[in-house]
Amino acid sequence: MDYVATPVGAKLPGCTPAPAQCPATTFAHLPAGAAVVYVSSAGGNDSFDGTADKPMRTILAALAVAKAGGYVALAAGEYNEALIVKSSISLVGVCAAKVSVVAPGATPCLAVGENSKPMNLVVSGVTFKGDGPGIWAGAQRWQVLRSDIRQLSYK
After folding, report:
1. Strand pairing partners for 93?
2. What is the C-alpha separation between 31 and 34, in angstroms, rounded?
3. Number of H helices, E strands in the chain
4. Nearest to residue 79, comparing CAs of 64, 67, 61, 106?
5. How far is CA 36 from CA 73, 110, 130, in A?
6. What pLDDT shows up at residue 36?
7. DSSP letter string over 18-82?
8. pLDDT digits (tens, 9 = 90+) for 61-100
9. For the stretch 85-122, what's the b/e string if a residue is b when 16 or more beta carbons lie within 10 angstroms of its beta carbon?
10. Which end of the chain is more exposed for a tag (fewer CB within 10 A), N or C?
11. What average pLDDT is seen over the chain?
């Protein structure tokens, strides 16, 4: 996937994938047979089972049922929630130009792990926005791939 550079500054640091180059699929392609919980802010419901046909609505609900080492797949949309990840997982959006996690208030968009619990986290295809400090990481290993972290500040 190609990226389009955006001006470096207080409002738009980093780069954003060109929307025209985002896949036309609802969810990112994931390995066959992988343990996946699907999420859609538009058509999901947290009482659903988290399959591609019946996705959950919130990422937090999906994280609560996702298996360690599995995936949480995000459809295009805006997710207004602060995420807390406590187990090894891959959080995969369909495309960073189409998937946004917006944290409420001054909370971090993403809090990863606990200082005493080793885990791995991979984040891909997600844009994080908000007024909080962005990502808090107590995890030993984590990666942010093909994602955008913007409009965050630490107050």
Report:
1. 74
2. 6
3. 1, 14
4. 61
5. 7, 20, 27
6. 97
7. -GGGS-SSSS----TT--EEEE-TTT--TTS--SSSS-BS-HHHHHHHPPTTEEEEE-SEEE-S-
8. 999 999 999 999 999 999 999 888 888 888 999 988 889 9
9. bbbbbbbbbbbbbbbbbbbeeebbbbbbbeeeeebbbe
10. C
11. 78
SS (H, E, C) 79-134: ECCCEEECCCEEEEECCCCCEEEECCCCCCCEEECECCECCEEEEECCEEECCCCC
Model pTM score: 0.79
Six-digit token pair at 3? 């990226």
Name the one residue in this structure whose structure tokens are 């986290």. 121
Backbone angles phi, psi at 139, to 5 degrees: -75, 155
CA distance 88 to 122: 8
Looking up tokens 């909080």 gives 132
**Quick one: tokens of 149?**
């972290």
- Residue type (1 letter), 139: A
Residue type present at position 86? K
Sign of the four-CA dihedral 100, 152, 125, 72: negative
Q: How confident is the model at residue 53 (pLDDT cuts 50, 70, 90)?
A: very high
